[in-house]
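Fold it.
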Amino acid sequence: MPQDFTISDLRQRPGFFDTVANRIWQAWWQPNGYPLEYISTRLRENMEATPIPFALVAHEGGRFLGTSSVISSDLEERPQLSPWVAAVWVEGDARRRGVGAALVNRAAQDCFALGVERTYLCARPPMTRFYEALGWTVIERNVGPHHLGVFVRDRNPAGRAVSSAP
């Protein structure tokens, strides 16, 4: 299916910054009582000229469709694992169009282009099949209070053993 949207580095499309911060905040941080400014401050780190962290934004021209980020650490229970594809969000009316898959794949490919050999991702159990279909492998289940799955994707998956590293 041809992609009818663009994925850009948020540093190149800063007009989407407030929307990205708001979606990340509403999805994961607001329910736990964190203020929007907390996420805005953390997201500003993605705007610096460093390889990691970075954020991606999917859009049709000026219309926001979704986002994903690559960060050093995304799971308090596994601080030794790095880097992580995180904060994957797709607008409700843009779902089932390949936006999420494209954002996740682009984030992983951008990591590999930086010389990273392995990247991680965590997700709630209902998302397991989605990430497995994209080539991610579950290495742990039921981690932390949200019973997250920990996934790995290797730059060169052939011949590499996958193991959990608690």
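Residues 99-113 form the longest helix (15 residues).
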